[in-house]
Structures
1.
Amino acid sequence: MAFYVVQFLTGLASAASLFLVASGLSIIFGVTRIVNFAHGAFYMLGAYVAFTLTARFSGALGFWGAILAASLIVAAVGVIVEMLLLRRIYHVPELFQLLATFGLTLMVEDLVVLMWGPNDLVGPRAPGLKGAIDFFGQRIPSYDLFLIVLGPVVLGLLWLVFQRTRWGVLVRAATQDRDMVAALGVNQKWLFTSVFALGVFLAALAGALQIPRDAVNHDMDLRVIVDVFVVVVIGGLGSITGAFIAAVLVSELNAFGILIFPKISIILVFLVMASVLIVRPWGLLGKAEAPARRTPGLTVNPWRPLTSNERIAAAIVFLFAASLPFFAGNYALNVGAEIAIFVIFAASLHFLMSAGGLASFGHAAYFGLGAYGVAFAVKLAGLPMAIALLAGPLFGLLGAVVFGFFAVQLSGVYFAMLTLAFAQIVWSIVFQWVELTGGDNGILGVWPEHWAASASHFYWLSLAIAVLVVSGLRMATFSPFGFALRATRDSPLRTEAIGVNGKRIQWSAFVIAGTVAGIGGALFAYLKGSVFPDVLGIPLSVDALVMVLLGGVETVSGAIVGAIVYKALSIWLVSQTEWSKLVLGAFIVLIVVAFPKGIVGTVESIWHRRPSSLRDALLGSKIETAE
Amino acid sequence: MKLSVESLNSHYGPAHILFDVGLDVADGEAVALLGRNGAGKSTTFRSIVGLVAQRSGRIQFEDRDISSQPTHAIVRGGLGYVPEERRIFTDLTVEENLEVGWQAPRANAPQWTRERLFELFPNLAEMRGRPGGRMSGGEQQMLTIARTLMGNPSLVLLDEPSEGLSPKIVEQMVEAILTMKKEGVSLLVSEQNLHFARLISDRAYIIERGRICFSGTTAELDARPDIRDAHLAL
């Protein structure tokens, strides 16, 4: 019995830091409508800065002063980020904001390695709270008890600030209607900045307080952000009390889940999240969100199928690509096959985003399921390649059927967060279920059979499938199904009113996108000859998003160009620099700020205007706010 | 001159909405802006307070050019705005709604306190702690005016204050507006209801399809039934 009580208390202690980060995210979202992906990065920075400061100043005053100072320093960094970056993107669609803050996260990950090195750092224990308390033979660290008290105290303080101060009233008013607050004479800019500073302060404080419990390392940002997304989805985005309840719930599930499913405790959290979403789609204490300002994919230039001239041009490009093996070497062909595979992957996400208006932040899950599907088919079932290849899309399809059902119940940022959480859950299962998947060691020896083994044959195979897939997705976009999907994207209510079951249409689109991603994953497994959990990881999901964005989310097939340019660039980049995350992150931020329409979108808008207004077209590539 | 607008043009995306709109409000004056639905009344107001991004022309408030200022700076200068859709903060209580509107008093405008506003709108006094979302339309309309007055403005733009209100509430509204006028607040009030406008204003403009097509005193307007029929009749 005592053991369970201690386990419960440990859960509560973890809940405190989770709550701090989640409440910060919630507060920032409430006012600025930005889901700050970089929140995990600020948490991590808080821990690193606190590590440095606590090493320099000793004693109780030194330790606690260092924790506070670290949080304030990171909050100041947050203010700079808000003023330099976020102020430029408050009016762009949520997806772009998520991506820009993700780019920031990537940069911070490399920056902390640059400044603090790649190794885990162990901070000092808290003075005065080093010991443990004996509880019927079980030991509870005093520091945990301190955290358990801290959570409710912070909740109470936040409540006081929001209920009892003028600033709090303004923030709550702005959460509901920021334009009206401006129309009453309040300068939103500083309101936003101060809110952002508070949110970042809370995240940094959580990170700083973590150092006596855990080692500081450079991947703690992604770990915490996924948990935080789960917490705010369960608790309801924008609700601080909801964040508290959900943080406790998730932490307790983790604490006890380990006893029930030692290997895959995350399944329990997933089950709870899924059931909450079915009963209350906006979370336990959340409110229904107004529809997104502007769904991705919505465009001023109407889409149309290719004209015959454009078909000829596409055919010429295809013939050129198909002739590559006659003059290129094996390395180039391998790169070519990889690009073709990523065209498939990016096109599948692009279909979901542009035609469906659904921005998935976890699309790699289906790519990775496809790759593992092939690996299982080859390694466990010993199937021949032609059949094993089908296992990829089948796995992608099954995953998309299950997760898609829940995901399409939501929209906008909730959809993005939920898909990300699902992907991370799949990743954790694959990573932890070592008996089946080999865990971190992956599954090796998934080589293509003789007929597809040579570089040129495999390249042709990938190219052919890519062309088929892209044509198929284009046909779907211009089919009655595609029309219904686009209508649902543009106006869910009106579409419902003419008798279209919007959710089912979106679910079907999700399944199509997942299946196609599975095809890409299947080829990828054969290309590399092995699969690792990386193929399900968040970075890969984000790669796909960047490809779509780079190509142009408002176009029909921009992702093809995006995939080719991005993949070629990143293969080159990785060979050139050690700090690829830093460069890549900066690149993502730059695209979002300067070219939100992407390559194809920018070219199209120049095309649609007169050549004389080239400058206007470039300037106009900044996304206008929809009225 | 309290407010002077010259050749104001506004666009929503590619759509041209206002065409060379010009109007004046003198110190202490109450002016009506009349027009049918969709004539451009709200857009005129939104352009004056800087809520329409694409606007051009000269807008002078107390002899300062405000045409390139952001909304909050314009409102800080003493130009209050009451939007048509009310836009009460539904999660906030009546008192909290008033708090959001608060600004420091200014020399050239009457000063309002919470208690004075509760005298002006007795209904609100009875529901200080009630969330804005649980009030009737008329009560919300009063709250939105009171909220703007908390900023101690010298000029108030009132967008269709009588819209959708019961006759009894409209009467109270007329009372409140006349009190504001007596205190020295200048007013620009948009209306479809000529009867209502006549009760509160000295002068009127009529706007149709984004152009000002009549300007004169309310008495002149009364004497010209042809103009009323042409531009205001439904």
2.
Amino acid sequence: MADLPFQKITISGPTLSALMHRIATSLGDVDGLLFGHVTRLTPSTLTDDNTPQNPDSDLVATITSFFCPNIPLSFYDSLGRVDSVTLHRLVSSTTHQSNSSSSSSNFLGWFSARRKSPIRPSMREFCVSQSLSRLKTAAKGDKDLNPCVFLLFTTPVHGEMLYHTHEYRAYQFQVNSRCFEPKTIAIDNIGPDFRGNYGCFSPNSPFPELKCASAMNDEVGEDLNRMERVSKDQKELDMVAQGFCVGDLGKLMGSETVNSTMSLEDLYEKMLGKLDNLARQVEKSNAKVLEMENHNRKLRYKIARPVPE
Amino acid sequence: MSYDGFLPFISAQLQYLLNHYPHTIQIEQARSGTRYFPGSLDRFTLLIPYCQDHMKWDVIYNAEFPLAAPDVIFGAEDEDFHPFHVVCGEDGDSRLVKNSLTDWNNKDPTRLLALVIELRDKYRSYQEKRVGEVDDDRLKFEISTIVSREGIEMHMSSGFEKPEEVKFAVPLMDMNINKMVSACPWRHPQKIYLQVIYPVDGMCMAEYLPHLEELLQRLVIEAVTLIDVRRQFIEALAPLLGRPLEADPVFCRKASFLVCSGPFTFMLHVFLSTNFPKQQPSLMLQSTQHFNSLGMPVKSPLITEYPWSPRWETSQMADRISDFLVDESLNFKRHCNESHLQY
């Protein structure tokens, strides 16, 4: 299998900062999986220069999301051998969660973050990357592409150098030469220069398509069928608004549109209420996760420390 | 070296490593990778001797996940050194590999030692392979003549700024020096290495080494014999000056006696060089009764000039020193009284 070298690895500013935040707030060293896509750059400038350009170097790997299991050795063992079953579970659960357009969330590689250590791939990191490079289940779109991206994050060995709090490097693992090839990282930010990267982004959130709203006025039809449909639609509506009755949707159209302003405002308010409630739930579950993490940590310490005599 | 601050299981493994490794290992830059407990150290740099030099390897444990095996980061120059790379087929599954990281048990204090020994062995093979690949007839010939020596170490440096060079540490003489010196304090076997750095001109090693070893062997035997000569001399002083208060029992380089000259009591320190008896012992007198303004006992300067001949019998040497002391003690007493009166 031929190695296709990347020209560079790009990551969006928000993804990088989310990743760094995750690393900075972790208890100890962490690692995880990287997702994204690989694109072929189209040459933007045409020149008369006839020097042949490296046809392989127009590939760009873009990291768009990551998954951090928050425990080390989550998908490989102490020797760096990847457990393909676990990896498959982690990868598929993450790619299913994200948008159905799977092309934007291929499994690209992994990252490792360790504090106070030299910024060089370690013995185990090499083995993990090598082991990953043997997997055939790489990015689905690109036949020849392995999950070969590796991001390394460290903090300086001497903690006093606080004005330089962290370092990161990107590598592409070369299967044939069995080595890490350092790559430049480009950070994509929002702005006119990066318009190309956000071209497919649409800032609209789709409202569920509800059939019953239109059928509401048809008095005919079997009651049972109608009720079933209403309860199904109510469920879908509850996903976006909190406590708004499907029946009231009818007031937004037809003969009752006189009061539609109030009804519409009511709908928006309930949609905002839904968001508030979601935020509260996230906060609560975060607290729960933290509590469980602390509990787990105590258990781990218990194992590590001999019982005082 | 204190192990304070390390988690107990890391501390136990470190202690075992330092006490059982056949060479001296140093620990540097102990630090912590945890967020909330920067005091619990879980990573450090090991200075491991190799080829008359040191390798700096970072050992990274994880205090938050004590059951996980440690990771190692090798030196910046050794980025091609991959001791445990997966050698299996396409499936990426190699359950048969067995090394010191498989079935890691953090409660077993011997694990770190086993890991370091295995990695260092692999590093030696890695360097041997690199040196073997150098396309140089002279070097290939030299290796063929010395490769059979047990414990030989090779190293090829290829930094960006440094010129390429090959280093050898050739163990010399199949001699157990530890056994030759009775009651020796060394924990590790004493070995003499010759460091050779290629490219070199001139004599080849096969020609040079026998001469060198013969010479060294003579020197070692002579040095060991001289220990006995020094011991006999110290023993010969005992009937005249009394049993030594303190004496270096292994190398016999130093002895101290308590000597009386009438009511004046002083200590005599005798320092013996490795050239004894060719070079006479240095003497120093120290009063037990006089102190200077700082409260330190008054001492004489080092005395290196007094009647001496390396051809004398040991007993005669002791006699002559004893004779010399009769007069010298009076001088010293006067010196003590004078310096004492000043305060």
3.
Amino acid sequence: MLYTENSVKDYKPRAMVIGNIVALSFAVILGRLWYLQIYNGEKFFRYSLANSLRKENIKAPRGLVFSRNNKLLIHNVPRFDAIIIPQYLSNRKTSLKKLAKIIDMPVEAIEKTLRKRSSQPRYMSVIIKKNITKKEVAIMETENFKIPGVSVRQFIGREYPDKEIGAHLLGYISEINDKQIPRLRKKFGHKYRPGDHIGQAGIEEILDLHLRGEDGQQIVEVDALGRARRYVSTDNLFKGIINRSFKRGDNLRLTIDKDLQKTAYDSLEGKVGSAVAVNVETGEILVMVSRPSFDPSQFGRGITRKYWNSLITNENNPLLDRNIQEHYSPGSTFKTITALAGLEEGLIDEKTEINCKGHIKFGTRKFHCWKKNGHGKVNIYKAIKESCDIYFYKLAQILDVDVLAKYANMLGLGMKTGISLPREIPGLIPTKKWKKEYTGESWQRGETLSVAIGQSFVLATPLQLVMSYAALANGGKVLRPYYLKDIFNNAGEIVEKTSPKIIRELSFKPKTLKILKKALFSAVNEKKGTAYWFRGRGIKMAGKTGTSQVVRLSSDKIYTKCEEMEYKFRHHGMFVSYAPADDPKIAVSVVVEHGCHGSTAAAPVARDIITHYMKKYHSDIRAKIIAEEKILAQRNKKQ
Amino acid sequence: MIAANFWSLIKKYDFSFFVIIAAIFMVGILNLHSATHSSHSQAAVNLYQTQILLFGFSIFAGMLISFIRPSTMARFSWPIYWINIGLLLLVLLLGMKGMGAKRWIVMGPFRLQPSEIMKISLILALARFFTSKRYFSELNLKNLIMPAFFALFPALLIIMQPDLGTGLVILLIFFMVVFYVGLKWKTIMILGIIGLISGLGMYQFGLKGYQKKRITAFLNPGMEPKGLGYNAIQSKIAIGSGKLFGKGFKKSTQASLNYLPENHTDFVFSIFNEEHGFFGSLLLIGLYLVLFFRFLWLAQSVTDVYDSIVVIGVMSVFFWHTLVNMGMVTGLLPIVGLPLPLMSYGGSSLLTFGICAGMATSISNSRNIF
């Protein structure tokens, strides 16, 4: 049939059908309304009167965190709060009075807390006292019926058994704030909600999505006192309600050794500083502590004002992870890198010898060696072993600062190590271009001299230093440090596994590495070596001490004893090392702020860590250490 | 002379649509005020004032539209449709650049929501198509391909925004129109069977469990399966607790304690039922039926087929919104998020309904004014 002019009348049957459809549709709606309002109206009316249906969020327990040997580093513990639901406070005065007596808190204080939250809906609970004792819980549970509106709420507390030890690495959790919600939703694509607890630092922050799991949800009917009575899924009115159960967060196994952490932390007792130890071959972090520290357990449920104030007014900033969030002039520990550059560029070799008279003149400026009377004849071995400044000043006169920077960068200095932790800083390796850009001035050749001994512009984090020494120790592999062995779910299945990652493979002349290793060995194990008095018993450590000047000293003060200076002007002491010297397994970097010397302040910490490590993981060396310790003990007895 | 013309115009002007709409709106505004009066934020308490302004603006727009001759509408049907498609593409493009869903284009102080206007554009385009020479009056499967494309394409664009509710309404409007112009019962059956089998097959065998969840979650993040979920339960409690005569104006307990979220948009009907009961709903649904049958009667009393189809289309906009919203809050249909015409808060839907009423008025007037 071809196109014909239709008339509206042709559509009449269909219009009738549509009319019927419309009428029928609303008959169905009315039928449904009749079913809800007349047939079941009474029942729904009761529900509505009590306002008794609640959607309850069931918080998923966060994943646990274990050490490399499966010892708990973070776990969950049940805790209890005393709460009030204002809607059910039928007899406000008596209820508050009774509660005040049980939890030992003035009525006025409870009133004040309630007033503070008076803008929220009345059916929402107000926390009156956190972490009440088991005894208080018991009394409240038994008295519950007599004090309407008051009840106990359980929650899962996050506990860190080692408290301050390694707190920076583990981080802490606390309630999400309003500003974070939109930002984190966008960043992680996870629907964070007000009241959620999230990781705010360290591993808790970085691996929050793995640890947090998924909250569940259930709909419960509550009685007139606001206590959950039963699950409504038992009422056939709501047949088919599915309560979503929670999903536990995944657990982490770290590369950290719990015992070594403690050794390192204790060894830093009374000091401000940090220690980090890595596996030389893999980049696994074994130890990472920083002092002063904080107790992460305090943050989970609203930190007390008092504790928070004590943290933020502490001038040593306990929240700072000195391993990655602070950088220092590496001081003499940088000389190893200067020597590397000199040897590789062919500017010096084993035979190169200079004469140290305690100072040299360069231009109009006089540069001093730390040893006032000089070291006499110095070659590369002695220069590193005794940390002679003049040797490196002389080398710096023929070494371009950009070439030096190239070698430092190769080893990972001046850039982030890439460890998966928040707020790592990159340190600084100066170049001519950098100085021009940042200060507008050209490079002064004299400045190369200061850079060569790790002073002036050079800055490095302790983690960078240990990674660079690890690269020298393992023959040129620059590794990405990591702390996460694997992630496993609650069935014990491994979800994710970390494998070592080589960032760069450097090929140095074998001769160069041999010279450097020998020199670093002698610095610890030969008389006159800067760390000789702090060498470990039975272990063959190699390393380099360093002193990081806090202020530039005028020439008359250069040789003032550091210990006699005001605390805040004292030098930082550093020590970077690895062991065993002939077959390196572990590398350690220690910084002690205002510790004056790398040797006295920092080296003993590294020695303690390495000794403990060797005893624990290398049985052949353990025997040697124990034998040596016995000899020492006997000798002490005789005296 | 002008005055005389004016009076004769007023006498002949068909006010019935605006009157019925205003009547429903009156109920709506009282209900909105009741739903929000106990809200914690002052902004929510004042919502009903904004709603009155928006309604005034929408009625004004509808009145202006009512002076556009149906023949003019017919002439511009295709340009309007294609420009609208262009705008939908633009929104999708802008949405891709920015993060997340985007449904509107900002034009000065106004936010233009092309998916809303698409409901009207589609009606105009379909009416134009079915009265053109390209169309063979026998509407079999083959002849359905072209018009189906006109509806499916914008529906897809809207669903991708993602706005599942509006996308579905577009499709429903399409079905109502093709049914009216004579889609054969046989074709309807065939289509129904094919749709059912392929849909079930896809769902049963083609998709894995997590894919199903992901698809529904992607299409409509707020959607909860029928009968499940908190909103649906609270809505049912609100409605059921109204019993025969309701708890009375401003006496809703579900709303006052903010148990029911979205109680000023998608769930206004629940509050109305709680406060006015079955009896109140009977009257309200009666008002809606008066409106629908006024449209149907008009569709049969015009002489031009184009006009008739447009009126049916316009009716279907009101009808589907009302039916789906009521079905959804009473727990008969999944919660997809559609407003109840003239009752729910929201400017862009009010404007759509105002324009629809204006178009019907224009068509009604064309019988004796133009």
